[in-house]
Amino acid sequence: MYTSESFGRRVRLGHLGRRGGSGLLLIPLDHAVGAGPLRSDGDLDTLIGQLAEHGADGVVLHKGAARRVRPARFRDLSLVCQLNASTRMAHDPDAKYPVATVEEALRLGAHAVSVHVNAASRTEAAQIAHLATVAEACERWSVPLLAMMYVRGPAVRDGRAPDLVAHALAVAAELGADLVKTALPDDPAATARILAGAATPVLAAGGDPGSDPDAVLGRMSAAMRAGAAGVAVGRLVFTAADPGAMVRRLAAVVHDRTPAAVR
Q: pTM for the whole thing?
């Protein structure tokens, strides 16, 4: 259950989870900083319109990208502002650097903010410290915080190992996140145990570039059955020949199930 009961936080969380207990379908579109321009026909505003029309609940954008979208798009779609980033051109692509603040996100009209943490990376200390700093600002300004928690680093053999995933989720919860996105194990029983023990609602991450769409949809469906609060899938959508159709398929997985509610 969420620990903060401030009015502003409840309003923003209510916008994120306005479908009640049917689950949260979040589409991260923050990839351009890290991996280069999004591969999608049409402009960003048109893509966002398709997401809203076909069942997405929210979208993750960097501050500059958000300004290229018509404000009316966010009447029925929540805006989550990404606060840190890195590029694949960097010496250490697992590092993450602050690129925006909670205050900037509020000026954009964001409903929530997001911070990416690569636990076990060489720069884990700085990333966790940044998450904690953002959590304090979110508490001050009554803004929900999504933590994107991954286990990645030179000594990590399997970042989806159940004990590592559970630990990463615990870090996010202990430092003040309201929602957590992570890559869950393939084993449904292990996933169910992790989700049952998680202190915050968990969104299942979509997967690596080039993943088979049917396989991703199958994993997302399994995660929802295991108790996930929703899914966060970006590449599968913006690389699809028909992003709207892909969102409809994801919405069927998320909104036609009875998962753990976004509280």
A: 0.94
Please report the domains of the chain, with CATH numbers, ordered by start residue.
Answer: 7-255 (3.20.20.70)
Residue type present at position 143: V
The H-assigned helical ranges of the chain are 7-16, 31-35, 44-53, 63-66, 102-108, 124-141, 162-174, 188-197, 213-226, 235-238, 243-255
Q: Enumerate the active-site residues.
A: 150, 181
CA 146 from centre of chain: 6
Average pLDDT over residues 93-118: 98
Taking residues 87-111, what's their average pLDDT? 97
What are the pLDDT digits (tens) for 218-237? 999 999 999 999 999 999 99
Alpha carbon distance 50, 54 (integer Å): 6
